Known about the structure:
Elements: H1 3-16, H2 21-36, H3 47-55, E1 66-69, E2 74-78, H4 84-102, E3 104-112, H5 118-126, E4 130-136, E5 157-161, E6 169-173, H6 180-188, E7 198-199, H7 209-214, E8 216-217, H8 223-238, E9 261-269, H9 277-289, H10 305-314, H11 323-332
Amino acid sequence: MKVSKLKSLLIRIFKKKGLTHKDALISTKALINAEMVGAYGHGLSRLKMYCDRISKKVINPKPKIKIKKISSSISHIDADDSIGFVAAEIAIKKAIDNAKKTGIALVAVKNSGHYGLSGYYAEQAVKKNMIAIIYTNAPPAVAPQGALKSLFGTNPICFGCPTNSKIPFILDTSISMINRGKIRVAARNNQKIPEGVALDKYGKPTVDPIKALEGVQLPIAGYRGSGLAWMVDILSGVLTGGNHAGKVKDPFDDFSGPQNIGHLFIVFKTNLFVNNFNERISDNIRIIKNLPKIKGIKNIFYPGENKFYRHKKNDKKNIIIKDNIMNDLKKLSENFQ
């Protein structure tokens, strides 16, 4: 499907569900971006979930979002159970504005929902020649070190900075071996997941995505990954006023209430300590890329490069939509004139 056609269709679907045109556009852009960079677990595969949650009144399509000024640098946002895309868009823009005035900004969000890719928001700060650090928590998926029960989310950690080139440095990684979206996509497509990324509910290794969703995902680097997940839960949940300690509801399966996800956005100028950051980061990347390479490796990529190239490549193509997702689109767009 052509991007322009898909964009128009998604806007109409979101508006049909009660979102304003502005909020429908924000949500549409975020979903299409995920498809363009190849992050399919955060793209169209989640559209039905968002729509279901709006229909069941656990996402507020017309939220009254409140921004509380703590100081010139610090803001606290109550997202009023909005769709996460809208809350995050407001938050990153507020963080950028605050950082422009004071050099550094801290913006916390509570009562939000899943907002897609953290890197999508970091890129907005990077385009303003700023550095961004972003945290968000998520529904239980990862067991704390030594536990058999899931409690932490896959809790992504995101860092973005300019690079003195058109390709930003964007590290956007979950603390689990693979993100939960990939497991859900595998389950919908009857595919296996890699070995060593999940355990079933009995604590046994599994490559069955359905058993993995019923069991626990494994963190990166053992107890270190578990510790990072805990850190993100504190920063984005405990600190912000959002749900934490396993209380974030699963967006696909739990419609008993809003998720109340917490996000934390930290944005600051690159010239706080030195005036030649762009030259220094360029030198940093050049040195690392020129290191001797192991056999079979032609290039050392920095985080964000591969996604940039995938987006550029996909920009010239139609978006390929799998049959099961196309069926979702058809059902969600029924009765359109």
